[in-house]
Specification:
Oligomer: single chain
Distance between the termini: 54 Å
Radius of gyration: 31 Å
Largest sheet: 8 strands, mixed
Strand content: 5-15%
Strand order of the largest sheet: 5-4-6-2-7-8-3-9
Helix content: 25-40%
């Protein structure tokens, strides 16, 4: 009989083999643990052996390479296994580290995209400590188990190879083991045929088990790493318009004729093909259109994608029927307008009694701003959780805790008009250095309750707030390389400027002045192509980390402290913000200023001179709540920063003529909310509820309940500019037309949750964009998380009964999900879920069409 070759590297061979086995199996166990809640336990147990088939193949292959090749081939085989071990070790360490930080799975294609981005790479490095700790543990286990694992596999596979040699009449040698008793043929055959039988049965079950979700659950490193080499898609060729799935709701009996500036609603693409919806040039149109207004132009090739940035791949794209990729509100089956309704009565009354000038518009987009902490309230779910952590606290301790929590978001209380209800008396939480609202009684602006984000990826969300568009449901910011299918607010202001080009501006009337658009943040603009996106959206100027860190920068100073992997604390842009306001005043310009806060982003770093508070009980597993506590301190820092901005508006004399819009880009889930932490592939409701406020000291204080998203911001700004008489006649004419072009409703008027049976749908893309979609409606309390790939589950919740989504329904199969929904919530919930699934998938195709997105 042939004998297998002895070890070439007695110490190295067992360690390498053990490393491959331990990392492969540990990675699989973690992978299965993350999905065990989403499948029936009996099915999980039945299919459990099938999940490890590929892992077994990897381990056997590694053993074979290390055991049977002689001489130089053996050395080459050793190198191959070493490379495999290194890859598996790195992947498994990353998986465990990522799980420790977020509770989620690593997606290697997303990780590779981050790794090629400078700021993204720093984001990955922020989790280096748990990855290093995981790697150390895996390496220690591999070293400790190396003799046992090698012995077990050598015994087992030696028997298999020996028996196979006998059965095939082959002459060979088996691997001699120290002190091994001579095996009997009966034992050898028993092991061999038992192995063959078990593998045959498991393989049979593997072939006939359902593909979803068990194929995904069987994923094995290093094969899962192949996702790193997936090529990104590109913008190229449009999809054909797809019919709306709820066809009865778009029948001709529901069509609406044109009425004044309202262009009507007739969602039938045959009207385009027969020329019935030919676009007419408006009377206010300029001679040449600025960027962003391509579909208004008589020359469809004008002002499109930047020709200078087109690649060879772009040149090979087929010709485009531009009508098929243009947004047309007349044809949008999801659009519901409320512009036919009167203004909210308090606003109408205020406009009758006094002027409300809007010379400037500030849009403050707040990173990871959860509505339940803007402001934090006594008795809220979070407040109760914090109090619960203080198990042995006295009433005095609880009073002290409430005092500290009351001091967490006092500025947010004033901006929204909502009290934290911590019973500290009138503004008892305002210290002398904090901003104090000088608005009159009952004044301060519109606070929207029920707003959700359009995306839990920051700059997809920014597109909604600045451009009134739905983002592209693919991973990361491909929008930066595409044409935005609606004019952004900055481009509308450029249009207003262009309409004034021939005017002689000699008056003091602010309505004759031109606009300037400026973007400001204290962090990098290079992450995920934000710098390119800013140019696409139409900003005239950007002030970002890359500007202010230069020694030649106007306000550069020694000791500028980077607090996270993105950049500096917000205070570093304060002098630039002041300069921008003073420059606008001196040049008699109107200012649109967009500011993105960042301190509330992971890892929630703070300036060294900012004193942190301990909100969670220090004797209650502090590490469990450490991240949430860091976040709350970052929220407190940003709250004071918002107060600094409001003070600056007052000190520079522009507060009473400035509309300030506050909106969150998305929320932030913690372990106290969800088993998955953060926004990455996490559809939990805490990632979607965001604050939305239209602040002006001369607007009445109103609370508007509207389950809307940030796509309503742009129409509301235009509605305010028109109705406050803050535009000249030509600009007002243009704005009154343009407001009818957008998908969102104006929050200056009663919000329509439904119309003629159609619901006001809220679609939310889940970070990173191409894997999951949140589908909700303003008309009902239900919510569906829709998987866009086969690697994720369906999730259903009823927000009215379960506002914090602590008891959601999860299943891999949609029809099984429906059966559970019916048992728990009834037939109406099932009907809605069916509609939501259809509309969500239609919306994904529709957005790809509008973004002219082509999948290779």
């Amino acid at each position: 009989m042939m004998r297998l070759a002895a070890f070439r590297s007695p110490g190295l061979r067992p360690l390498l083999f053990s490393l491959v086995v331990v990392t492969t199996v540990a990675s699989k166990i973690l992978h299965l643990y993350q999905h065990i809640r989403s499948v029936p336990y009996l099915s999980f147990l039945l299919y459990l052996p099938t999940f490890f088939l590929t892992d077994l193949v990897v381990c056997v292959l590694a053993w074979t390479l290390l055991s049977i090749f002689p001489g130089a081939w053996g050395t080459a085989a050793l190198v191959v296994v070493a490379i495999l071990g290194v890859f598996d070790f790195g992947a498994a360490s990353s998986q465990f580290g990522f799980f420790y930080v977020t509770g989620a799975e690593v997606r290697w294609d997303a990780a590779s995209s981050l790794a090629t981005d400078a700021a993204g790479f720093k984001l990955l490095l922020s989790g280096l400590i748990p990855v290093f700790a995981s790697g150390t543990l895996l390496l220690t286990i591999s070293w400790a188990l190396a003799p046992l694992i090698s012995l077990a596999f050598d015994n087992w596979l030696s028997v298999i190879t020996d028996t196979a040699s006998v059965l095939t009449n082959a002459r060979g040698r088996y691997l001699p083991l120290a002190n091994e008793p001579k095996r009997t043929n009966r034992r050898r055959y028993a092991v061999f045929f038992t192995t063959v039988a078990l593998i045959s049965v498991v393989t049979y079950i593997r072939l006939y088990r359902p593909n979803v979700p068990y194929r995904h659950m069987s994923g094995t490193i290093p094969f899962t790493l192949l996702a790193v080499f997936q090529h990104p898609n590109k913008t190229c060729t449009a999809h054909e318009p797809q019919p709306f799935p709820l066809s009865k709701l778009v029948e001709s009996q529901y069509w609406e004729p044109q009425n004044g500036r309202y262009k009507g609603w007739m969602p039938d693409w045959t009207l385009v093909k027969n020329g019935s919806l030919a676009t007419k040039t408006p009377l206010w149109a300029p001679e040449t259109w600025p960027a962003g207004f391509k579909r208004w132009s008589n020359n469809p090739n004008e002002n499109g994608l930047l020709d200078s940035e087109m690649t060879a791949d772009d040149v090979t794209c087929p010709s485009i029927d531009y009508l098929q990729i243009s947004y047309n509100p007349i044809l949008d089956p999801m659009r519901i307008t409320n512009l036919d309704l009167e203004l909210l009565s308090p606003v109408q009354k205020a406009l009758t009694n006094h002027q409300i000038p809007i010379r400037h518009v500030f849009l403050i987009e707040m990173e990871s701003a959860r509505k339940d902490i803007f402001p934090i309230k006594s008795g809220s779910h979070l407040h109760q959780a914090i109090k619960k952590s203080h198990k042995s606290a006295t009433q005095k301790d609880i009073n002290d805790l409430n005092s500290r929590l009351a001091a967490l978001t006092p500025v947010a209380e004033q901006i929204t008009g909502e009290s934290g209800n911590f019973q500290l008396g009138n503004r008892g939480n305002l210290t002398s250095e904090l901003w104090k609202d000088k608005s009159g009684p009952g004044m301060g602006g519109i606070n929207v309750l029920g707003a959700v984000t359009g995306s839990s990826l920051s700059f997809k969300s920014v597109l909604g707030s600045h451009c009134g568009v739905g983002p592209l449901p693919v991973d990361f910011m491909f929008e930066a390389d595409a044409e935005i299918y609606q004019p952004c607010i900055m481009q509308i202001f450029k249009l207003f400027n262009q309409l004034k080009d021939n005017d002689e501006d000699t008056s003091e009337d602010m309505r004759t002045k031109k606009w300037k658009s400026v973007f400001m943040q204290s962090i990098t603009a290079e992450f995920d192509h934000q710098d390119k996106l800013n140019k696409q959206m139409g900003f005239d100027k950007s002030v970002v980390k890359e500007n202010i860190r230069l020694q030649r920068a106007k306000h550069y100073h020694k000791g500028m402290e980077e607090i996270n992997y993105f950049g500096y604390p917000e205070v570093e842009i304060l002098p630039y913000l002041k300069d921008t306001i003073e420059e606008a005043k001196s040049k008699d310009e109107r200012l649109f200023l967009s500011h993105f806060t960042s301190t509330t982003h992971h890892p929630w770093g703070l300036p060294s001179d900012f004193e942190s508070e301990q909100y969670w009980a220090s004797n209650h597993l502090v590490s469990e709540h450490e991240d949430n506590n860091k976040y709350l301190n970052a929220v407190r820092y940003v709250d004071r920063w918002l107060g600094t901005i409001m003070k600056l508006l007052e000190n520079t004399g522009i507060a009473n003529e400035t509309l300030v819009v506050f909106v969150g880009d998305h929320g932030q889930a913690f372990s106290e909310d969800s088993h998955t932490v953060g926004t990455f592939e996490n559809g939990h409701i805490s990632n979607f509820r965001v604050p939305l406020v239209f602040r002006h000291p001369l607007l009445p204080r109103i609370e508007v309940t509207a389950n809307t998203s940030s796509i309503s911001i742009l129409p509301t700004i235009l509605d305010l500019l028109v109705n406050t008489n803050s535009l000249n006649e030509r600009d007002k004419d243009a704005a009154s037309d343009l407001i009818h072009e957008y998908e969102g409703q104006s929050l200056l008027r009663p919000f329509k949750a439904s119309h003629n049976g159609r619901e006001a749908w809220n679609m939310g893309i889940i970070n990173t964009g191409g894997t999951m979609l949140s589908v909700a409606s303003a008309a009902v309390p239900y919510r569906l998380i829709l998987p866009l790939t086969k690697d994720f589950t369906y999730t259903f919740s009823d927000i009215s009964r379960d506002p914090n989504e602590t008891d959601v329904i999860v299943d891999w199969d949609f029809y099984t999900l429906l059966h559970i929904i019916e048992r728990k919530y009834g037939h109406e919930a099932v009907r809605w879920a069916k509609d939501a699934e259809k509309v969500g998938r239609w919306w994904v195709d529709e957005k790809k069409r509008l973004w002219n997105y082509h999948e290779k």
